[in-house]
Amino acid sequence: MSIKKQYFKTKPVCKVTFEAPEDKENDTRKVHVVGEFNNWSTSATPMKRLKKGIFKVSLDLEKGREYQFRYLYDDRQWANDPEADKMSATPFGNAHNSVIVV
Predict the structure, then answer these.
(1) Apex CA 49: angle with CA 62 and CA 92, to 5°?
(2) Is this structure's pTM higher than 0.90?
(3) What's the average pLDDT block by block, 10 residues per block, for the chain (102 residues)?
(4) Burial class for 19, CB neighbours closer than 10 Å (0-12, 13-18, 19+)
């Protein structure tokens, strides 16, 4: 997994590229990035599958903010990003969300 940030001098946004590997054991068919930037919609932000077994999507996020997010594999398996800037506890037991700071 990886996160890349590209800042623009003339725009109030940061282009953030999220990458998640396929889960070969479970034959991943689709991955979505789900978070505060899309109102936690499990369908709003699908990631594109690349030939090398990586799922990728880029979003323009407002600078000066933090966003919690997670990856959703095949509508059933949640995953955090170890490359995230930090983690944040959720109100759902001992789960955590990844956090990106832009």
Answers:
(1) 60
(2) yes
(3) 93 96 85 97 97 94 96 95 94 88 96
(4) buried
In 3-state terms, what secondary structure has residue 37? helix
How confident is the model at residue 27, as a pLDDT?
83
Query: Structural domain boundaries of the chain?
Result: 2-101
Structure-block tokens of residue 51:
């030939």
Tally the residues of the chain.
102
Return the CATH fold of 2-101: Immunoglobulin-like (2.60.40)
Residues 91, 75 contacting (CB under 8 angstroms): no
Cα 1 to Cα 54: distance, rounded to the nearest angstrom: 9
- Type of residue found at 100: I
Structure tokens that stand for 94 in this block: 């001992």
